[in-house]
């Protein structure tokens, strides 16, 4: 799987996140070529659980234990990009279908993004973190094949 320079592979598992829990703010079931593109869900970033530094996010951050969002994706040849728009500084943390962790901060201003050049089919669990225990309301997660 090719992952662009927007994200670095986290070889260590994020220790406090439980991808077996139900996502707090919703999920998508998407098949490659989905419309409309992008799809999005809204939630709140941050939490009371600190995750340790991961490649791409050397300082770690604060998240909820359960994923904020979940995407079940049936892949084809298109790349898949996850990005965040929020009124505060956020971090994007993703566990992919193979169990690999990816983290990104500040791709577009203070907003993070992770692009999978050759995404795998399966479950993507997504957390949107903050640098402290604060919560950032009106945080949107976008999923696109076009960006």
In short:
The protein is mostly beta strands.
What does this protein structure show overall?
With 147 residues, the chain is mainly β. The protein has one domain. Helices cover 0% and strands 44% of the residues. The strands form 3 sheets. It has a 6-stranded mixed sheet with strand order 1-9-8-11-6-2, with no helix packed on it. A 4-stranded antiparallel sheet has the order 3-12-7-10, with no helix packed on it. The chain has a two-stranded antiparallel ribbon with strand order 4-5. Strand 8 and strand 9 form a beta hairpin. It starts with 7 loop residues before the first strand and ends with a strand. This is Peptidase S1. It comes from Pararhodobacter aggregans.
